Amino acid sequence: MSNGPFLIAGELTSGGHRLVQRVYYEDTDFSGLVYHARYLHFLERGRTDYLRCLGVGQHELLHADEEGLVFVVHRMEIDFKGPARMDDVLTIQTVTEKAGGAKMVLTQEIRRGDALLIAAKVIVAVINKHGRPRRLPEELAQQLLAASVAPEKAAENPLAKT
Amino acid sequence: MSNGPFLIAGELTSGGHRLVQRVYYEDTDFSGLVYHARYLHFLERGRTDYLRCLGVGQHELLHADEEGLVFVVHRMEIDFKGPARMDDVLTIQTVTEKAGGAKMVLTQEIRRGDALLIAAKVIVAVINKHGRPRRLPEELAQQLLAASVAPEKAAENPLAKT
Amino acid sequence: MSNGPFLIAGELTSGGHRLVQRVYYEDTDFSGLVYHARYLHFLERGRTDYLRCLGVGQHELLHADEEGLVFVVHRMEIDFKGPARMDDVLTIQTVTEKAGGAKMVLTQEIRRGDALLIAAKVIVAVINKHGRPRRLPEELAQQLLAASVAPEKAAENPLAKT
Amino acid sequence: MSNGPFLIAGELTSGGHRLVQRVYYEDTDFSGLVYHARYLHFLERGRTDYLRCLGVGQHELLHADEEGLVFVVHRMEIDFKGPARMDDVLTIQTVTEKAGGAKMVLTQEIRRGDALLIAAKVIVAVINKHGRPRRLPEELAQQLLAASVAPEKAAENPLAKT
């Protein structure tokens, strides 16, 4: 898969969202492998494009009401299971585990082909523009969770979790 | 153009090569705009994928003969003509101006739609694995220059320079 | 503390190691705060300088015997407790919790003055140059753990844990 | 010079400003050398700390009057003369060549010991918060240029240009 066509913002899956990205020089360090903190960039691109594919603009949320709504990473647990290298094509898979109250829990994986390189659990806090916790709107919570249960799409999508 | 299909390594044009990339959080700074050094990352991705589309692997070049062949940036002149912002979709255009002896001269542009944001002239030196200048192989020089003159492709490619 | 004198590689403490670093433009994103993955850079600078202050060169370890010795991050748990901003001066504190067998467990904190911004648990695997687990040399394990118990230095160091 | 004491924001010199910084993992790429765009980060840290040492806060300038004052990089010419490597300690030297009207011209160098690695000319535009050019305040222009001519300090500073 050196140059297939794909969607720039990735695509919704029955399991959440999937994004394809390339490893470039900038992602590597002198060990010859990808610098560990760069995997967090790939994970963040996945989360941003997941919301984009759901039609959720982060700018719009900030100005949706007087309070504003902002997502911030509250906690991450990351297992580094195998290294990525220059020129690799990676798939970033994001799945919503919980969405409600003032937080979202996502599981994210980075794979090269079938090989699992990174497994992460990400707790995202929902705050207002003054930094105080606020509730995730019910509609958005439903939208995120709905993306986790679409069995008819799962059949056609070999990467999706069922 | 928020999520069209495209080629992950970009494509050869009559003018050289064209790559489409997204601006993410990681690319911005607290001014609200893209951090100036990040444009060099986008330009480097363009150069790497240009060689990839020509079938030139940088690993293979390093081991092509006993001397090895490595490309290093020798000089850059960069005009910052306008800012990119979060979520922008950028097109990186690379054109070979000269290729021969121990160097290549490339011109590169970054555009958002029609708007020119970055114009750069990049001088790339050709060295061996011991850091000494060496000649660019004639075949590769021809391949790079040939990509600059393909009028029949230019017609179907509105972004290409003729 | 905008421009006090300090040691470029930080200093050993009774609790491990302490490094002072500045937040620059490159560390921030358009939210106005430090980009979340950048905290991992600060933590890694702390770990690298901790080994440097112990006289352990990572290049030397790689060539210490036929097998070679390399440290890789195996798992991280990171709590993002408060945001850092442009121009902040941060203190990165590293403490060895365990060192032995084929791994090290470190706790790391990033503070701005007294405010705790980041708390992390980092599991570092010890591998050889072929990527296989190998034992941490007993001498280095002792050196890392010894740095955790030096009460007489703790007295003169207000930031150190006792 | 693996761990000498130094000033976190660097220091004013007769030639402008000097800052000492370490190369970490994050700065390198799989070639084993520093990634070319990272040198722009070191240069930017130098410019930021130069203004800091002159007592000029970029936040304060933004709110100094109704118009606001912002510095943006307009053009850079960079010669990459030699590579930096992991663990190197680098000195970033910044000198004001011109300051007046709506721009500043700076020359910047990065050295490892006596070896010149990077030579850059940086044109910085002065704009207001709406992105329009505005004049650099006369007082600040004088302050920047005054830093370029202080022969009595030059004597005690072996790195300064006279």
What report would you give on this structure?
4 copies of one chain form a homotetramer. Chain A has 162 residues and is of the alpha+beta class. Chain A has one domain (11-155): Thiol Ester Dehydrase, Chain A (Roll), CATH 3.10.129. Chain A is built from 4 helices and 7 strands, in the order E-E-E-H-H-E-E-E-E-H-H. A 6-stranded antiparallel beta sheet of chain A has the order 2-3-5-6-7-4. Chain A is globular and about 45 Å long. The two termini of chain A are 25 Å apart. Chain A binds chain D through residues 25-26, 28-33, 35, 37, 85-86, and chain D through 25-26, 28-33, 35, 37, 85-86.
Note the main attributes of this structure:
Thiol Ester Dehydrase, Chain A, alpha+beta, disordered C terminus, globular, six-stranded antiparallel β-sheet, homotetramer, 162 residues
Layout of strands and helices, then pairs:
The structure is a homotetramer of 162-residue chains.
Chain A: E1 5-7, E2 11-13, E3 16-22, H1 38-53, H2 58-62, E4 70-80, E5 89-100, E6 103-112, E7 115-127, H3 138-146, H4 151-156
Antiparallel strand pairs in A: 2-3, 3-5, 4-7, 5-6, 6-7
Please give the share of residues in helix of chain A.
Answer: 10-25%
Proportion of beta-strand residues of chain A: 35-45%
Shape estimate of chain A: globular
Largest sheet of chain A: 6 strands, antiparallel
- Count helical runs of chain A: 4
Which second-level CATH architecture of chain A applies? Answer: Roll
CATH superfamily placement of chain A: Hotdog Thioesterase
Distance between the termini of chain A: 25 Å
Q: From the 3D structure, determine the CATH topology of chain A.
A: Thiol Ester Dehydrase, Chain A
Q: Helix and strand succession of chain A?
A: EEEHHEEEEHH
CATH class of chain A: Alpha Beta
Q: Main sheet of chain A: which strands, in order across?
A: 2-3-5-6-7-4
Oligomer: homotetramer
By secondary-structure content and strand pairing, the structural class of chain A works out as alpha+beta
**What is the gyration radius of chain A calculated from CA atoms?**
16 Å
> Which chains share the greatest interface?
C-D, 26 and 26 residues
The average pLDDT of chain A is 87
List low-pLDDT spans of chain A.
150-162
The total tally of domains of chain A equals 1
Question: How many runs of DSSP E, i.e. beta strands of chain A?
Answer: 7
